[in-house]
Structure formats: C-alpha cells, structure tokens
Amino acid sequence: MARRHSWWRWWLQKRQLYQAQGVPEYWIVDTDARHVERWHPGATSPDIVTQTLVWQPVASVPPLSIDLERLFRVVWERLGHDPA
Asked: Cα torsion for 83, 69, 39, 10, to the nearest 10°?
C-alpha cells in the first residue's frame, strides 16, 4: 500500500510540474492495463489510448504511429508471461 501511495504522489507531482511548464503532451505507459495515458496542458484527465497511438507534433513530418496491442503483446511475451 505504501508503495502505491508513493507512486501516486510521484505521478501527481510530475503531472503538475509538466502542466505548469507547458509540456505540450506526455504519456504514462501502463503495461499491466495495456494502455497509454495521454496528457495535455490543463487537462484534468487523460485520453486513454488502447489501440493505436498517433503522435504528430509537427504537421510537416509524418506521424509516429504505435500499435499498442502489438507492442504490449511483444512486451509480455518477452517477459515470459501474460497477465491478460
């Protein structure tokens, strides 16, 4: 329980710092839940991405597209187990 509490405190402080500094976007990857929390400045809750994460910070550059289902499957296969 104490470990979860310290993680939560760290996460909240980091989110507040990033938002205060105007970081345009940041991600929290949750391999257990198989999703990415996508945060933007001023947001009170994240976008939860479970399938394909698309990131294009500059319109003149092709977007980065990450198949999260495939990524998490590979991660868990390489770890030798799958909690899903």
From this structure: 30
Domain count of the fold of the chain = 1
Residue 61 lies in a domain: yes
Which pLDDT tens digit goes with each residue over 9-48? 887 888 889 888 989 999 989 888 999 999 988 888 999 9
Residue found by looking up tokens 């319109």 in the block: 59
Beta bridge partners of 54: 65
**Two structure tokens written together for 52:** 């394909």
**Short-list 66, 10, 80, CA closest to 34:** 66
Count, residues in the chain? 84
User: Is 33 within a domain?
Assistant: yes
